[in-house]
Amino acid sequence: MPGPFIDDAQIAHARTLAEEIVNPIFDLIRRNTTVSIERTVLRFFGISGAGARGVPLANLMVDKLKAAGVLNRGAAYWYGRALQLGAKSPLEAVERLTALPTDKLGPLSPEVEQNLRAEVRAEARSALEDMKSRLAARDALRQQFPMSPAPHKYVIVATGNIYDDVDQARAAAQAGADVIAVIRSTAQSLLDYVPHGATTEGYGGTYATQENFRIMREALDEESRKLKRYIQLTNYSSGLCMSEIAFCAAYEKLDMLLNDAMYGILFRDINMRRTFIDQYFSRRICALAGIIINTGEDNYITTADAYDAAHTVIASQFINECFAKRAGLKDWQLGIGHSYEIDPYRDDTLLLELSQAMLVRRCFPDAPLKYMPPTKHKETDIFFSHAYDVMADLVAIWTKQGIQLLGMMTEAMHTPLLADRFVALKSANYIHRAARGIDEEFTVREDGKIANRAREVFGQAMKLLQECRDEGMVAAIGKGHFGDVKREETGGKGLDGVMEKAPDYFNPFLEILEAT
Amino acid sequence: MVKPSKQIIRPYGDRRDDGVVQLSFTLPVPLSEKAKEAAAVFTKKMGFSDVKVAAAERAADNYTFFIVYARSGMYLDYAEIDVPEVVVKKMSFDDLNAFIKEKVGRRIVVFGACTGTDTHTVGIDAILNMKGYAGDYGLERYPGFEAFNLGSQVPNEDLIKKAVAKKADAILVSQVVTQRDVHKDNSRQFIDAAKAAGIHGKVQLLLGGPRVDHKLALELGFDAGFGPGTKPSDVANYIVHALLKKEGKEPKDAHYQGEPT
């Protein structure tokens, strides 16, 4: 631990403020559900196929229920009704339900109603047990082939074709990568459905589909056995399908997900209410599945200036942490995001970056943390760019980051060449090996530049948290406090997919997950 | 015109005309002596001599990464290189923001939407949203712009009304659906509405979409058109130059890299 810099009491106060900021949003979360949450419920029951023209069955069914104005009772309830009508399989349930005018489905006697719920609850429990046993297989493999020590070196593949991604991911693992991220196709986060099946065409990335997850995890399982070192897989639970992606990822045994309580609002203009409600259920699933989430505060300082906006990162991290804890996530699952983004032509940037990373470490001592490399000020001079990345490698090992996305020397140019990943991995391995334990050897003076800067940033973060508490989170986002982006509560995409729960709303998964 | 005299040049390694270049590449074979020789042969096939395979690294089981130094016998006459002077180079994210700050002195207000019945926001999102497209940041991310993305199925009149209320400098209309030329009809209707609102010729009106080109946009009455493959930075550069021209801070006939043609 490089330094206290800040009193424990002050850090505890930051957490109290975050609690108070998040509290009112939980009223919203409790009162409402979304089309995406209801589709997730159906996916849990095994409705994962697609109908004509590739429309997912979960969408067909939820859209039908929404059009009939009855989705507010919960898709699980209607799934139960379909079973009661004699459906033998989930597919048949969808067919029966979507074929039937909903007004024909009148109220049931209280007794029948109770039985129906009990049956559906039992089925939900067995679906969750099934998922847990799949995850147990993942955890056994992790135990059999332990991972390298942290920072876990994280690299990205993004060919658009899942089979090409597999080749690149295997090569990266062989070169020393610990975590593989498959970048999604551009703007997938704005699709209000999860595409179906294996895909070989994407723009700027590969579609996140359950089948693509399965294909990649299977390849990495094989690679883990070969290398005798477990290789983690991550994807993106963001946008309009946060909880559906979380389900697909959990089912296919992924290890991490990018999952942020506010990223979609700020950077993809997804409606605020939709995002807050969706993130909660998605995080409940991550909590159950032992998935490590990666938050997206690094994005703030690609828009705002990294020096001036450093405190917004810290404030947002406390808020993200609070949302996560309230959804049942444990410290070890919090890949709190931040990055090395200060303009390299300033003076003292290594000190400033160390200060910021040490401050994050100080605030979140038990979280793995997710460290992102320079991107904003990257240059096409690959030799300079490489040296720049190496400094981030040093800060990562010095501040004991759990997960480090490695910078690519061709960052400002193109998606990484196979050799770019190799070069980044080789030098990160060198720096990590060379400097491991450096934090134990050097104490940071409490009256120096690093500590003073950390106190300054923390002080500003506290002010911002106070303001968010006094004015409310919605107003704070409306003023552009995070990432310089302003959003309105009723603006953005996906608000029409939010609905108030009926008094007899039924979601057995939420019940069970919240009780765990 | 007098032809300039010859100026023969070659790459400079550590002395004049040694022709030394450095290369790096990957071959899809496992690391071995044979792989190294293959790298040397490949380099020679490209016309290089004095090939030195400086590094051969196992990048993965079946891939070897090479760093090679070699000499090239090629030379050229620098006097014969003819590059028309680019009037203004396309500016990067940081340069453009600094340029806006200096020349415009305020944030440029931009509104965008998919208007009419079009529900496909992928185009307007790629240009305006933070995230941008293919690593090129959207206008929302530029401190120099204040960008408003109203989304899809926005009536033309609404877009214009909201843009006028915020004194927009530019309005972006995205049209993705093109069945039965619906994009042209809707675009004409937009221009009519812009004329009715008295902003035609005053506010920059830009049209974008997969079936749009600059010529079509001009025909329909827009100031510029952007077709497939347009990056947010292309639109950003255009808006800044067009604004400066309008304000008389840049000559009307100034040309710059990447302008719509």
UniProtKB/TrEMBL annotation, chain A:
Pfam families per record: Lys-AminoMut_A
Stretches assigned to the D-Lysine 5,6-aminomutase alpha subunit domain: 6-511
An annotated Gene Ontology molecular function: cobalamin binding
Alphabetical list of SUPFAM superfamilies matching this protein: Cobalamin (vitamin B12)-dependent enzymes
Highest taxon of the lineage: Bacteria
InterPro entries per UniProt: Cbl-dep_enz_cat, Lys-AminoMut_A, Lys-AminoMut_asu_sf
Protein name: D-lysine 5,6-aminomutase subunit alpha
UniProtKB/TrEMBL annotation, chain B:
B12-binding domain: residues covered: 107-250
Database matches in InterPro entries: Cobalamin-bd (IPR006158), Cobalamin-bd_sf (IPR036724), KamE_N (IPR028991), KamE_N_sf (IPR036843)
Superkingdom as given in the UniProt entry: Bacteria
GO molecular function terms listed in the Swiss-Prot or TrEMBL record: cobalamin binding; metal ion binding; protein dimerization activity
Protein name: B12-binding domain-containing protein
Phylogenetic classification of the source organism: Bacteria, Pseudomonadati, Myxococcota, Myxococcia, Myxococcales
